[in-house]
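Re: [ENG-882] Designed sequences occasionally contain unexpected residues at chain ends

Forwarding the minimal case from QA. Structure tokens:
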């Protein structure tokens, strides 16, 4: 009997080992460890698309004392899963409320009561110490994007994210764009210059690698640069390197040492994470110069196990990182479905509905500092910052600020500018184009950027920014910057069937129709 049980256990261990290799794939061979770098602890930013968008919101909220900027593409509010997240068991209800685009899960609106519960949980968890104090959120810059051909995460969900942040972050620090005809994708300006044609979709296409190229209808630019818009809103004006001229390196690293549940180390696959993550390391950062850190979370079906290094190479961040001393961390989730050995996560999504939690865990654990994936990525951040703290020197202060458009939508303008010697704040003025009368519309201190909101679509405005000294006296002013807001998004009602893996209409019938 004992020999029989021993043989059964041995066969089970063998089966689990084979399953682990099958799930881990070729990337299961451990990569090199993460380096310890000299990083600026005040300039850590995060971004994400789809499930990565939810993860960026979760990570930025749980660690808001360290994270200064959050960029969100096609995502929704913090703790949107609510009580349905207990043990990850009610994912169909979560999809109906927090995605709203699959006819198999008829949309359930995010109500005022839902929003109040999400915000109340945020306040309670901050009070309990499960996430950082809310003062960190109040300092963050928030950049949000939704394409109106996105039939996976519908616009109402991104609208709700804006409302959620509005309870904690000043309006002048939130930018929201929803006027491009983009589908559900990372919108990248790195798609065509050095990428194979198959790497990216046209703007309104859904599927493939979920990385799209879009012309910017508001400015007339041939490609909308989402990464550049967000990073400049967070950090001020930056310089972009062309993909063919990058000097940094994309390195792989072993994720296993960072993945634990409590004090117990987990095999990456047990947390639905891949064995290997990626790091874009500019040459200056590798040489020990002070740098900044950006964490970029991929979306569902963008994990390395499915598309290799395509997201890490084509998401659009490396081109802005190269010349501006920004290290980019690309942690990796993994597709898993071997319940109970692994979570049920067949699309390789980040955990935003509790699939890593147990029923006896405190509800929402996955979205706090104790969440398995959040804690793992935070350990990666701590390792990277282990080389010491340093400040990245900005542009040499000039006599007057140089004003730059970071982004523009139908109702908002995001502005960034270069510093001025002796300035303690900057005051932004707006006037109608051709009209000399100007009104103050925003003021910034710690970060040289601001959002001007509640604007009219397709309307021309002129902006100036004035440096302000410690006594509150305005000094040098920038030259005027003329900006025309985008046209408002048309009425559009797209859908996407996850089961069919293709766009559908409201009746769940395949369609190729898109909104222009």
């Amino acid at each position: 009997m004992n020999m029989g049980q021993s043989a059964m256990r041995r066969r089970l261990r063998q089966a689990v080992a084979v399953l682990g290799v099958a799930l881990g794939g070729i990337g299961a061979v451990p990569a090199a460890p993460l380096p310890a770098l000299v990083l600026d602890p005040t300039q850590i930013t995060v971004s994400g698309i789809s499930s990565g968008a939810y993860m960026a919101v979760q990570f930025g909220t749980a660690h808001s004392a360290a994270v200064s900027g959050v960029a969100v593409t096609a995502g929704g509010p913090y703790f949107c899963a609510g009580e349905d997240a207990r043990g990850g068991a009610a994912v169909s209800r979560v999809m109906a409320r927090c995605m709203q685009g699959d006819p198999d899960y008829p949309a359930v609106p995010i109500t005022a009561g839902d929003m109040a519960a999400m915000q109340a949980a945020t306040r309670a968890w901050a009070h309990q110490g499960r996430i950082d104090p809310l003062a960190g959120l109040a300092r963050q810059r928030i950049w949000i994007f939704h394409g109106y051909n996105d039939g996976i995460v519908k616009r109402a969900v991104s609208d709700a994210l804006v409302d959620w942040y509005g309870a904690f972050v000043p309006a002048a620090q939130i930018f929201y764009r929803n006027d491009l005809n983009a589908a559900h994708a990372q919108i990248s300006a790195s798609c065509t210059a050095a990428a194979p044609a198959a790497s990216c979709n046209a703007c309104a296409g859904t599927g493939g690698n979920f990385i799209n190229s879009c012309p910017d209808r508001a400015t007339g630019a041939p490609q909308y640069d989402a990464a550049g818009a967000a990073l400049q809103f967070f950090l001020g004006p930056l310089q972009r390197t062309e993909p063919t001229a990058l000097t940094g390196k994309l390195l792989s690293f072993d994720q296993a040492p960072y993945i634990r549940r409590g004090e117990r180390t987990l095999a990456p696959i047990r947390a639905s994470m891949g064995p290997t993550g990626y790091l874009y390391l500019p040459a200056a950062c590798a040489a020990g110069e002070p740098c900044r850190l950006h964490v970029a979370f991929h979306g569902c079906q963008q994990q390395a196990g499915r598309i290799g290094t395509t997201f890490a190479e084509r998401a659009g961040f490396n081109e802005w990182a190269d010349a501006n001393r920004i290290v980019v961390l690309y942690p990796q989730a993994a597709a898993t479905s071997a319940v109970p050995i692994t979570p049920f996560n067949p699309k390789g999504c980040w955990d935003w509905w509790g699939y890593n939690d147990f029923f006896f865990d405190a509800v929402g654990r996955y979205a706090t500092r104790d969440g398995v994936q959040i804690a793992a990525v935070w350990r990666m951040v701590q390792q990277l910052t282990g080389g010491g703290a340093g400040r990245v020197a900005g542009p040499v202060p000039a006599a007057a600020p140089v004003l730059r458009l970071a982004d523009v939508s139908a109702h908002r303008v995001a502005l960034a500018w270069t510093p001025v010697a002796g300035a303690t704040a900057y005051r932004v003025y707006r006037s109608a184009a051709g009209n000399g009368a100007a009104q103050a519309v925003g003021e910034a201190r710690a970060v040289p950027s601001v959002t001007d909101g509640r604007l009219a679509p397709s309307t021309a405005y002129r902006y100036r920014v004035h440096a302000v000294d410690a006594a509150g006296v305005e000094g040098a002013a920038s030259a005027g910057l003329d900006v025309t807001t985008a046209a408002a998004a048309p009425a559009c009602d797209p859908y996407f069937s996850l089961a069919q893996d293709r766009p559908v209409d409201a009746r769940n019938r395949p369609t190729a129709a898109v909104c222009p």
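QA comment: On inspection the terminal residues look reasonable. The chain has two domains: 35-390, 403-484. Proposing we downgrade this to a documentation issue.
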